[in-house]
Amino acid sequence: MAAYKPVVVQACPKLGERITQDTLYWRGYKTPVQIKEFGAVNKIDFSPAPPYNYAVTASSRIHIYGRYSQEPIKTFSRFREAAYCATYRDDGRLLAAGSEEGSVCLFDVGGKAPLRQFEGHTKPVHVVGFLSDKYRIFSGGDDYSSALWDIPSASEIISYSEHTDYVRCGCASKVNADVFITGSYDHTVKLFDARTKSSVLTIEHGHPVESVLLFPSGGLLVSAGGRYVKVWDVLKGGQLLVSLKNHHKTVTCLCLNSSGQRLLSGSLDRHVKIYSTTSYKVVHSFNYATSILSLALSPEDETIVVGMTNGVLNVKHRKPEEKNENSQKKRQPAYRTYMKGRTYMPKQEDFCVSKPVKRVLRKYDKLLRSFESSKALDAVLEPPIMLHTPEVTVAVMQELHRRGTLRSALAGRDEKQVNLLLTFVARRVIEPRFTPVLVTVADMITDIYHPVVGQSAVVDKQFLKLKEAVGKEIDYQEELLEVLGMMDALFATFTKKRDTSLEENKSNGVTEIIETNRSY
């Protein structure tokens, strides 16, 4: 008796993931560390000065974390209600934050109590930042206003009330100490100059603005709102350069890497997208457990910190580069020993002893070997196989058809099994690699279960889905044939024109030769 030959599953080529330098770079982070905060994390900001601690604003507290610490090394909790937008000054010595009460608090990183408290907003302050001269603070609140404050005198310099909705984001220029930008839920981004009494530039984003970001050069502005990330040229009066729509939900935060060559955006769709700032194409993405509210990258790109709506802080550290040559030298003998004899070619006088390879059969192969057709079909109709490896299901159906037992395997099934069969066929029949087999299967199912149509609403629904899928595929094929006909007509026209032009050239050449002969 000949040995049983397992079912041959048709192998289809798959497009492998494109491995780029960005992929390798952004994958070079360790398994993330999860830190639970007291509420949703609305702001993360890294200190610009070593050792690059970062401030996390959540609920009514501001926690300062060390680079590798999982517990806060300092806490500012002098807030009666929620705190917002804790931001470091450029030297890392002062920290400013807004509050639900409408005040702006200034803290010394080494102290506990606020150094200054600026009163003037009538509603919660969600935006706070330092101007690049280090002596002034700008703020924006839910009272539709933005203000500029003087740190030494603890007084308000100027206030702007040009927005018509909540001011929820802002940033300061690092090139010009008088320029800062605010974004509002009124769909606008406004650029202010402290030397003027009104905004210098207004940009219409088109959606409630959740985050704004200025490039280090000060010439390009990035705004995020809705599903869009838009890049504007400030020097050309706010001209739109590119509009990116790579997220499925609202984009909540933006960040640049240390070199300014990569732009990061976080969204409520649980993804962080990384763009190249030259082509503005997505070069990598991270997936997280829940919606993202805040995002920060350390000054040396060594740490990525993401804050989420459930109060979880996700911290990823870059893996250290292995530069120890001694450890590599120690591994080499073990590797050579392992590979020893792998490339040896037997000589003519050698006697080769082959080790018998034990063949492990799959469940459906064992059932087919025992001629249990119906059970073999049941084995490949299990959800994991149907969803992830449909080619195995189709290969078994093809084998049953070759044996002539496919009809008997499909017959005698209850409502649940017929529903499962029809679901698979309706979903996969339009795939070209499965169409020849599944069309035969669909014909057999229709013939077998035609008498019971109308007795089960579930089965009838699946039959209608199958009919709809086949009908759509036929329409697509007809449209493709029409397009092919048009293309054939075009190609035929081009060919005729070319032949005509060649004939004219030849005839012109003959007449010229005749005329020259006559002249002689």
End-to-end separation in angstroms reads: 93 Å
CATH class of the largest domain: Mainly Beta
Low-confidence stretches: 510-514, 516-520
Number of domains: 2
Secondary structure: helix percent = 25-40%
The neighbouring-strand order within the major sheet is 1-28-27-26
Counting helices, strands and paired strands, the structural category is: alpha+beta
The total of beta strands comes to: 28
Largest sheet: 4 strands, antiparallel
**Taking all residues together, what is the mean pLDDT?**
88
- What global shape is seen? elongated
**Could you name the CATH topology of the largest domain?**
Methylamine Dehydrogenase, Chain H
CATH architecture of the largest domain: 7 Propeller
| Rg over CA atoms | 35 Å
Strand content: 25-35%
Contiguous helical run count: 10
Keywords:
520 residues, alpha+beta, Methylamine Dehydrogenase, Chain H, four-stranded antiparallel β-sheet, 10 helices, elongated, disordered C terminus
Description:
The protein is α+β, with helices and mostly antiparallel strands and 520 residues long. The protein folds into two domains: 22-317, YVTN repeat-like/Quinoprotein amine dehydrogenase (Methylamine Dehydrogenase, Chain H, 7 Propeller); 363-481 and 488-492. It has helices spanning 21-26, 325-339, 363-369, 373-380, 383-388, 390-403, 406-410, 415-428, 435-449, 457-519; strands at residues 33-36, 41-46, 54-58, 61-65, 74-76, 83-88, 94-99, 103-108, 114-119, 125-130, 136-141, 146-150, 155-160, 167-172, 179-184, 188-193, 199-204, 209-214, 220-225, 228-233, 239-244, 251-256, 262-267, 271-276, 282-287, 292-297, 303-308, 312-317. The strands form seven sheets. It has a four-stranded antiparallel sheet, with no helix packed on it. A hairpin with a 4-residue loop joins strand 12 and strand 13. Helix 3 (363-369) packs antiparallel against helix 4 and helix 8 (415-428) runs parallel beside helix 10. The longest helix has 63 residues, at 457-519. The protein is elongated and about 95 Å long. The chain starts with 20 loop residues before the first helix and ends with a helix. 32% of the residues are buried. This is U3 small nucleolar RNA-associated protein 15 homolog. InterPro entries: U3_snoRNA-assocProt_15_C (IPR018983), WD40/YVTN_repeat-like_dom_sf (IPR015943), WD40_repeat_CS (IPR019775), WD40_repeat_dom_sf (IPR036322), WD40_rpt (IPR001680). WD repeats lie at residues 118-159, 244-285.
